[in-house]
């Protein structure tokens, strides 16, 4: 596949449309080879022990240290935790999810005006991961839009449903505030100042990936999303029901339990690089179910498109030599425009030493 290929094909059949035709079997195009199916023998059901962190202690003079220790352990061992008492009102979250659901139920032509396979578009409606590159399709429709600063992007977002901009916009702003607070504790966990790269974080990129996974008649044969890591620093994910699975360092999959009003925090590639491998960018995938449609809103935060990110000098020493080259969000986008996610991970192109304790998908 050539890197600078013309991206022209905007036509596709969404999974929402497919399922309206009441099919009892999934089309051939969505059937994964047996080795990539969500094989339950590789799934560990210890999900109840996955970390849940209460953020109400964030500003407590003595308990903040314990909170930072918990955050460090979670980022170091799994690259994942859930947060409760995070400060985003339940109604703001519910309204955003409702407006997402309404968007996906719009007639096809209302959504197709945002259709594009060009990963550089600030607003993009699509299906699977990238319908132009994927060999096998994933059971997912999505709309992605840039969100920071909101005033720069919101006029490009869908105008239907009529309250989409208002509801999704309030959630995007609230989740960005939470992200800045979380960045402080995640950085402090590494021994860095909570204000480290403060301006870059403030002016960083926020991409909202709003996902719809219709119920699937044959969930054992397909996936909603393949195993992948997120490029940015932190992803904050809100899910309407269970369906996300994360991979641990023994390559075991763990279903992430649904906790009402909790948010899922995932470490992305940029943090793995900044921490020189102390934090793990978490491989994750989405499984499907026969009963119910699932929605999720992933707020993917990263440094600005052109900002080169390498390991923080403070975490590098003789015992921990530089293990990653510098990379940027812009370079990541160039990489994924040419390659399907399943063909290899961008972060692997940045690794200098093969680290035996890092998970590979
Ligand atoms: O829907 C989910 O649970 C995961 C979404 C995700 O990984 C993404 O949008 O990158």
From TrEMBL:
Keyword Cytoplasm: yes
Highest taxon above the source species: Eukaryota
Transmembrane helix is among the record's keywords: no
Localization in the cell: Cytoplasm; Nucleus
Entry GO CC: cytoplasm; nucleus
GO molecular function: metal ion binding; oxidoreductase activity, acting on paired donors, with incorporation or reduction of molecular oxygen
Domain Fe2OG dioxygenase: 204-302
Protein name: Fe2OG dioxygenase domain-containing protein
